[in-house]
Structures are given as structure tokens and as C-alpha cells.
Amino acid sequence: MSRKVTKYSALLAVSLFAAALAGCGSENKEGSIGTGPGGVASVGDTSCVQCHGGRNIEVLTGEDIITQYNATSPHKNSPYANNGNGCEACHGGGAQHHGVGPIPYPNPYDNNGARCADCHTGKYATNAPTHFAESRHAKFEEIHMGGTCARCHTHEGALLFNKAGITGEAKAYDATINPTPIITSAPTAFKCSTCHEHGGGLRNIVATTSTGTKVAWNPSGVGSTEAKNNQFNLCTSCHVLYNFDGKKVLYPSVYTTDTTAQIGGRSHNWHAALVSTHYDDPATDVTTADKTIEGYVVRKTGGACFDCHGHEAKTNTEAAMTDATKGTIHTDWAQSGHAGGILTAKYAAAAITTPRTKAQLDAVLAAGATDASAPSWAHYDWDKTSDTVPGDRTGRAACQRCHTATGASNFMTNPATYDAANNNFSHLSGWTAANGSKQQEVLYCWGCHTNAGTGALRNPGAI
Q1: How far apart are CA 48 and CA 24, in angstroms?
Q2: For residues 54 and 396, what is the distance between their CA atoms, to the nearest angstrom?
Q3: According to a count of CB atoms within 10 Å of the terminal CB, is the N or C end of the chain lower?
Q4: b/e map of 436-462 (b: 16 or more CB within 10 Å)?
Q5: Where are the alpha helices (DSSP H) in 231-297?
Q6: What is the Cα–Cα distance from 352 to 364, expressed in whole angstroms?
Q7: Which stretches within 155-313 are classed as H helix?
Q8: Between the CA atoms of 404, 408, 410 and 413, what dihedral angle is there, to the nearest 10 degrees?
Q9: CA 161, CA 460: separation in Å to the nearest integer?
């Protein structure tokens, strides 16, 4: 009798175990949702979350990876999603998984994002593994652990400081306001997960005001929904250009007396501060005679940084200053006519001595393209899209297709329908169609190229 009961109990246990497996998605094993990447049938997000929700915690941040995925992942509604099948867009079909079995891509970030490159090569060719593997992000010349240097010079520091609010104004570096997070593991260089949360969304950044209040880091000024996955916001949390409140960020206070700017730039060398090459000061655009274009204007939405750079992030600006053979396509462009020779002017103003003085840094900030060196960009306010007075040619709207990156990109996208009145220069400071902006565009990478990483050119067809 007892043997029959035991046999019956064993059969019941096997049946219950099978039912449990079915709850993890085995009813979809024949691919009712479809075949996922990797050639394995898909089961859908619901099945994945049943096992992984609340159980998989990111070690450094303490955050739940499913929460990250639900809140920020651009893959949740990806082309592979099939009604929410976003997990398998990156990990592959889960029908044979069930927590113990095979899944095609357990860690999509392996080999510097090799799985990511399966889809993103072409759109963002610089996502290819070789580009990131050879980048400055993956190969820091040195890993800094002292003070707040870890904020941008270690993977661990970036993640912890993102949450702690150590970014922005100078007082955000005050240990009494923001105690440095304790990094217990051996520090490492950046990896995919330094910038990307689970599911591919960008990391959330917290800033601290001068009074110690924690606020969202949103120098782009976009809405709260867009701010989370905004490339400009993420990149400028280290490569500072504007503070969270939109004020220009310069060097630390020992290097500047600019009362109109927030203080807190993390730079002791001009080439390391984005503002020295990526900011055109509107105050210097007074007349044609004294107009200067001190830097390039970064668009704050979309692929703001990938417009010209990709994951390789390798410009070698400092090295190329003394050895042209160490230059890159970026330093070549920045010294060309298309860039107004802005970097050439910076090099002429820069001193090679270290550390540099405030006067030397100020000279680099002030240097740029002028009407004498680059009239194609500096002579007129090219970005007006309407003439305020009939016959007034100062708007130069008809010239924008060659004399601005915005006009060039729009014209070469579709010459047949191109209309200068539709050119939008709202990324330039204070721009209006009637009056233009006191900032100027040169011909940026994205003016002629659809993809800066591959060098793919716009194809206007017959003109």
C-alpha cells in the first residue's frame, strides 16, 4: 500500500513540476509568439518577469533589472517585441530556458556588445565591438580613484556617483554635502553597462545644487519623459558643457572669473573641457569685424554626440597638437575649411606647458574662426529663415543649403522639396526665424553624412 502511495506521490510531483515549467512559458515552446533571435522560439516578457522580477538585483546600484527594463528600455517596444517580447530581442528566444536551460545570448554585452552590434551596425556603426574595445572609454590611460576623479574615470564610480548626485556645480564636490560613495571592488574601466541600464536604456543621473538639494540632471532642457534617455544629458555629466539648469559650465573657480557661468568644470587642460571647443559664445557675435566662432554647437536631442562621435570617442586632440600623425578624422575635420579651422586657432592659442595658467586657458576659450580666417561661416548671420525687410539680404536664407549644416542636410535629403523656410535652427541660442541667432553653425559631420561612424554620405540624387 505504501509503495502505491509513494509511486502516486512521485507521479504527482512530476506532474506539478511539469505544470510549474508550463507557467514559465513552455506552452509557447512551439513558437506561438514567433521565433526570436538565435533561432529559438519566443515566450514573451510575461514569462521572463515571472522568474526574474524582483530577484535579479544590480550589485553596485541595488536596482532591480526588470524595473530598469520597464522604465527605460528602448527595446521594450522594439521591432522584435511581438507584443512585449522585448527581453528576447536581446537575449534570444526563451522557450528552452526556464532558468536552467540554454538561451542564445545570456549576456548581450559580452565581447564589448557583440550582440548589440548585430542590430545597431549600420544605424550606429560605431556600436561594433571593435570600436568600443579600442575606445578611450574601454581603455583608460589611467584609472583614477582619488577624490571625485572616480566619477568619470571608473565604471564603479560612474554608477555610484550617478545616484549620489556628484555632478554639476562646484559644491557638488563638497564631501560634507555628498560623501564619496564607497567603492569596495577593484575599479575597472568603462563597459557597456556603465552607460546602459538593463534593456539598453541610458543611466539616470542625479545632480546636486549649491544648497545640497538633489535634482534631475537635465542640461538638455527636454521634458522629463525624454530626459531619461537623452544622450546629451548622459555624456555631459562627465564631458561638462552646461549645468542641470542650463548655465554654461567653465573650468574650476581657480581658472575663471566668468560670473555668468556656473563653476564646476572638471578640467585642468583645455582639450578635456567640452566648452573649449563645443561652445560658440553669442556675446562675441557683435559685428562682422569682431565676430568669432569659438566652437561647434551641439544639438541637445537625438543622437547629440553620435552626430559626430561614436563609441570609439577617440579624438586625440592633445596628441595631434604636437604630432600630426597622431590625429584622427575628428582633428582633421576640426582644422579643415568645413570647420572654419577652429581647432587650428585653438592650437595657435594653446600653450604646451603643464599645468596651464588661467590666461592660457582663457586664450584657448576665446580663439576661433573669424571673418578673416573663415568668411564662409563668420561673415553673415546665415541662420535667418526670413528677410525682415523686402530686399534685405542679411537673412541669407537662400545661402543656407551650403553655409549651414542644417541647410546642407535638409537640402541633400531631398533637393526637390527643400525650402529654406523649413530650416530649424532652434538648437542655436536664442534663435528665431526673423532674427536668427548670435551663434553660428559651421559644416558639421551630420551636414553631409547620414552616419558619422561609417562615413555614409547623403545621397541627393540629381540636383
Answers
A1: 7
A2: 59
A3: N
A4: bbbbbbbbbbbbbbebbbbeeebeeee
A5: 231-235
A6: 12
A7: 155-164, 192-195, 224-227, 231-235
A8: -170
A9: 46
Cell of 302: 537625438
Would the pLDDT of 13 be above 50? no
Residues forming beta bridges with residue 29, ordered by sequence position: none
Query: What backbone phi and psi angles, to 5 degrees, belong to 9?
Result: -65, -40
3-state secondary structure of 274: helix
C-alpha cell, 289: 569685424
Q: Give the integer Cα–Cα distance in Å for 265 and 242.
A: 9
Kindly give, in sequence order, each residue whose CB lies less than 8 Å from that of residue 373, ignoring residues fewer than 6 positions away: 340, 341, 345
What is the rounded CA–CA span in Å between residue 441 and residue 428?
Answer: 8
Q: Tell me, what's the pLDDT at 79?
A: 55
Residues comprising the chain, all counted: 463
Closest by CA position to 278, among listed 225, 223, 219, 190: 219
Instruction: Using alpha carbons only, give the angle 204, 426, 404 rounded to the nearest 5 degrees.
Output: 115
DSSP states of 39-83: S-B---HHHHHHHHTTT-B-TTT--BHHHHHHHH-TTTTSTT-TT
Does residue 181 have a pLDDT over 70?
no
The pTM for the full model equals 0.84
- pLDDT of 294 reads 95
State the residue for C-alpha cell 530556458.
97
